[in-house]
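Quick one: structure for this chain?
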Amino acid sequence: MKMYGTPVSGNCYKVRLMLSLLGRDFEIEPVSLPEGEHKTAEFLALNPLGQIPVLDDDGLVLRDSQAILVYLGAKYGDGEWWPVAAGEQGEVMQWLSFAANEMWAGPAYARAMLRFGRPGDLAVRQDQARQALGQLEGRLAAEDWLVLGRPTVADIACYPYAGLVEEAKVSLEPYPAVRAWCARIEALSGYAGMPGLGG
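Got it. Here's what it folds into:
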């Protein structure tokens, strides 16, 4: 199994973390965005959108971190990380959508502006980050995990950019339930960190 990506990408990290938690062997094929490697003909053959991460599992090539998380959880997670029941799948999918929308628009985008020079209105993105963290805080104040009372791909999808939000100059201090949830994820067997997260 091979994952194409970069160590500083939160979306790539989601996939790497999921693989580690599942105990799967994999190799990482580095893709340098500053050098434009994601726009080469070779990479565009894997993902015409020119985005990372990309996963190649024995010839099955998948793009988009949320889609990859669902695939890995369904194929290798024994019904734990990705549930079997349709209703439970719907509950998890709500948080995958939250990760792809609110978490991307706020915490992830604000971090990308400061770390990688992405253009935009930083104050607006930081405010969106606080709103997203507030949603997580409200949920996690009453629950240890986002859904189903156990860790699922929903937690893995939302965790990286919540944990990295201080790189967006947004404090996690007002969100004790989010901080406790991050600590629970970091205590999971098989957990692997990334630069700026989890030691």
